[in-house]
C-alpha cells in the first residue's frame, strides 16, 4: 500500500509515497468514501509530495471524479479537497482530476497547494474560495 489515511477534526488526511498507480489512488478514494465519518467530513487533504505519479495519465482523473460525484450526494454541502503537490507532472495530473471534478461535483471546492501548511490553512479557513 502506497498511502496512509487518517481522520481527525472532520477531515481526512491522505498521504501517498513512492510509486503510485491509478489503482492505488482509486483504492484510497474508496477507503475515504467507505469510512464511517465520510458523510460528515468537511475536508480532504491529499498529499502527493513524496509520490511518483509517472504511471498515471491525465485521463485517469475521470474515474475518481465520477465516483466522487456519486459519493458527494451523501456529504455535507461544502467539502474542501486540498492537494499538496510540487512536481510539475504531478501538478498536471492533479489539475486534470480537478477539472473533471469541478464539472461533476459542483458542491465541493478544490485547491492545489505546494505545501502542507498552506493546504491546512485553506481547509481550516471558513472561506470557500478555491485556489
Q: Can you walk me through this structure?
A:
This protein has a single domain, classed as STAS domain (Transcription Regulator spoIIAA, 2-Layer Sandwich), CATH 3.30.750.24. Helices cover 37% and strands 28% of the residues. The protein has 4 helices and 5 strands. The chain has helices at residues 22-33, 62-71, 88-104, 116-124, and strands at 3-8, 11-19, 43-52, 79-84, 108-113. The chain is globular and about 35 Å long.
Condensed summary:
This protein is an alpha/beta fold and 131 residues long.
Task: Provide the fold topology.
Layout: E1 3-8, E2 11-19, H1 22-33, E3 43-52, H2 62-71, E4 79-84, H3 88-104, E5 108-113, H4 116-124
Parallel strand pairs: 2-3, 3-4, 4-5
Antiparallel strand pairs: 1-2
Helix pairs in contact: 1-2, 2-3
Record keyword descriptors for this entry.
5 strands; 131 residues; globular; single chain; Transcription Regulator spoIIAA
Mean pLDDT: 93
Structure annotation, total helices: 4
Main sheet attributes: strand count, strand direction, barrel closure: 5 strands, mixed
- CATH homologous superfamily heading: STAS domain
Terminal CA distance reads 30 Å
Biggest sheet: strands side by side, in what order? 1-2-3-4-5
Outline, from the CA principal axes?
globular
